[in-house]
Specification:
Elements lengths: L1 H9 L5 H10 L5 H7 L3 H8 L11 H10 L1
Helix pairs in contact: 2-3, 3-4
Length: 70
């Protein structure tokens, strides 16, 4: 599974929740609306706040871009 996730990341694939995060960070979607649509609301809110939930995630790049904007 690690090889698949690495391959997916390298090819530019994103999860639905990662796409929601990008929409929130770009200001196109309010965080409450995105969180209610996320596959796991609590996990999404943690990610949005920059808190990792155990394993390293593919969200780091999106969160780094948020820190540059803030």
């Amino acid at each position: 599974t690690h090889a698949l996730s690495t391959s997916a990341k390298d090819s530019g694939m994103r999860s639905f929740d990662q796409s929601l995060l990008r929409l929130v960070l770009s200001g196109l979607v309010h965080e409450d609306e995105a969180a209610s649509s996320a596959s796991n609301r609590d996990n999404f809110m943690l990610k949005l706040r920059g808190i990792q939930s155990g394993e390293q995630s593919d969200w780091d790049e999106d969160l780094e871009s948020r820190n540059k904007v803030d």
